[in-house]
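Appendix B. One record, verbatim.
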Amino acid sequence: MLDKKWKILKSGTDIRGVATETEEHTINLTDETVERIIKGFALWLEEKTGKQSGDMTVSVGRDSRISGPRIQSAVLRGLTEAGCRVYNCGLASTPSMFMTTVELGCDGAVQITASHHPYFRNGLKFFTRDGGLEGSDIEALLTYAQEGKGPRAACAGTVQETPFMETYSKRLRELICKQVQAEDYEHPLSGFHIVVDAGNGVGGFYAHGVLEPLGADVSGSQFLEPDGMFPNHIPNPEDPQAMRSICKATVEAGADLGVIFDTDVDRGGAVDANGRELNRNRLVAVASAIALEGNKGATIVTDSITSSGLKTFIEQDLGGVHHRFQRGYKNVINEALRLNAQGICCPLAIETSGHAALKENYFLDDGAYLVTKIIIKMAQLKKEGKTLDHLIANLREPVESREVRLPILEDDFRACGMRVIEALEDYAKKQPHWNIAPDNREGIRVSFDPDQGDGWFLLRLSVHDPILPLNVESDQTGGTHTILEKLYGFLRTITGVDISPVERELAGE
C-alpha cells in the first residue's frame, strides 16, 4: 500500500509532481525521489524482461521544462547505479522515446515530461516495446521506490549520448516521401507553406528537421526554441489562447496549413489556410477519414464526449463504425487493442484532446505522426485540385456546446460520483423524451428530440479528479440552456456535489 508521499506522485499511467519551487508549491519530485523511482523501474523492468539490469538498455529523454536537466541527471544516476546501459537522448519528444524500443532495441525508455502542465511541474513516462505502462505498473514501481528496492548491480552502468531525434525525424521524412510520391520525390512538400507552433516545447524539430528538408516553406513558424518557462502560451492544442495564436500566425503567413504541438509532442492539432481549427471533433473526423481509407467498415475508437454529428459522419459518410469509450488516452488505446485482438479491425484510437494512436504506428499516441498523416493527405488532395476542407465537408457540427465541471465535495469522491450517475440513470428512465444512449461506455449520455433541446448531455466521473464533468451540445440556438434546465430538475435533488456551476450557466453568468 502506497503512503501519501508516493501515492500523490501517481497520475494515471504517469508520474507527476512539483519539480520547481514557487511561493505556493514545495518540490516533491526531488533528486532522491526520482532516483528511487528509477531504480524501482529498473527492478520492474528486470521482472518484465527476465534480464539482469546489467544486461538491459534504457533510453532517456526530456522536454524543455526548466527542471528537466536536473531530473535527467537524477534519472541517469539511478539507471547507472542499477547497472543499466543508458542512451541519453537529451531533448526529445515522448513518442520518440517509445520508438527507441523499436529502432534501437531498448528494453525500456524514460521520458521526463509533465505534458501541458505548468512550468513548475514535471514527471516521468515509461515505455517498453509493448507501449506505455499501465496504472498498475506505475503503482508497482512506486511501491519499490517507497520500500527502497532496486536491482543489485555487479558494476555501474554506462551512458552513451544518442541524438535519436535525428533518426526519428528521418523516419517521418521518409514516410512523407513514400506516401506522397511527388515528381520530385525528395521534395514532396515543395510549393507548400506550413507554419509550426511548438509553444517553446520540444516540437520545434518538426519545422527544420522534417518539413524544411522536404521543400516546405516554414516561414512564419513561431516559438520553436525550447524554453521551459513557456513565455508565449501554454503548449496545448486544447488551450484557446494557443489555438488563437496558431490561427493568427497561419493566416498572417498566408500558409496552406498550421500545426501545433503540446510540450512533449504526443498531441497535435492543425489549422487550415482560412485559420479554421482542425482540433477536437474536426481533428477526429480528419483522422478517421485518413484511417478508414482501405479499411471500410472498420471501427474508430474515440473518447465519450464526441459529438452526434461526428458519429453520423464516421458511420454514414465514411462507412465506419464509431465506438465511443472512456476518457483517457490510455483507455481508448487499450480498447482499440482489445477490439483488434478480438478480430475487429480498428485502425485508430483518438481522444478529442488530440491524443491519436494509429495501428500502423504501434498504437502510439504521437502528435507529429498524426500531423504528418494530415500533411500527406493535404499533398495527395492537392493533386486532385482539392483541399483538406473536402475531407470533412459533410461533418455536421453543433450549434452550441458547453462543458461544466461540478466539484464533488465528499472525501470518497468516486463513490459519490458513481452514486450520482446511477441515480441520474434511474431518473432519466422515468422522464419522457429522455433517450439514454445504448452505446455509451462512460457515465450517462442522454439525447433529446428537436422540440426538447435538439442535443445531448453526458455526465461522467473525471479520470483522476473529484469532478463530474458535464458536456452539453445542441443543434439549435438556446438548446443547451433548454437541456441544462431539464437536467437541473435532477441536480437540485442530489447531495455531495456543488451544482452552482450549472446554476451560473442558467443565470447567464
